[in-house]
């Protein structure tokens, strides 16, 4: 499989981490997470890792130096040009555009994970009642609105996160193979 960069976006509790981890294992590709990096910042600052705090840190990093933020996350995976990579947690349009610039000329695909509201609520309840309450407030935030509208609209592929991780992984693998076959046809014609 030709190296590419697969990025993942979707609402909270849509299954981004589970799916990106499964794909990394399936393809034997490195994986890195914007969320993991933001949580490490909260740890370093010795502040609670609530969704509100993490979202504020992410917005701060994007606003102050989006290219530095993206480069630091890529460095955490020891990524080098020409190597495939899976990146979890695209929550800002500026991050996506910056990543596209940083990895060029490699192909970067945005995969958006949708989630049934009932399935999402059940996942949040399993994580704790505070998570379910926090999501109602967070969905009004400009970052979550970018995720729910613009990022979904520009995604290269949309997958249903309500399905099993195995089914969604297979959907993405099939789609990616189709993209590669079509790209090869275009180049040789």
Describe this structure in words.
By secondary structure, the chain is α/β, with parallel strands linked by helices. It has one domain: P-loop containing nucleotide triphosphate hydrolases (Rossmann fold, 3-Layer(aba) Sandwich), CATH 3.40.50.300. Helices cover 63% and strands 13% of the residues. The protein is built from eight helices and five strands. Strands 2-3-1-4-5 form a five-stranded parallel sheet, sandwiched between helices. Helix 2 (34-45) packs across helix 3, helix 3 (51-76) runs parallel beside helix 4 (93-103) and helix 5 packs across helix 6.
Q: Which architecture would the CATH scheme give at its second level? A: 3-Layer(aba) Sandwich
Q: Give start-end ranges of low-pLDDT stretches.
A: 185-189
Reported for the largest beta sheet, the result is:
5 strands, parallel
CATH superfamily: P-loop containing nucleotide triphosphate hydrolases
Name the structural class.
Answer: alpha/beta
| Tally of DSSP helical segments | 8
Please state the overall shape, judged from the principal axes of the Cα atoms. globular
Properties at a glance:
single chain; 189 residues; alpha/beta; Rossmann fold; 5-stranded parallel β-sheet; 5 strands; 13% strand; globular; disordered C terminus
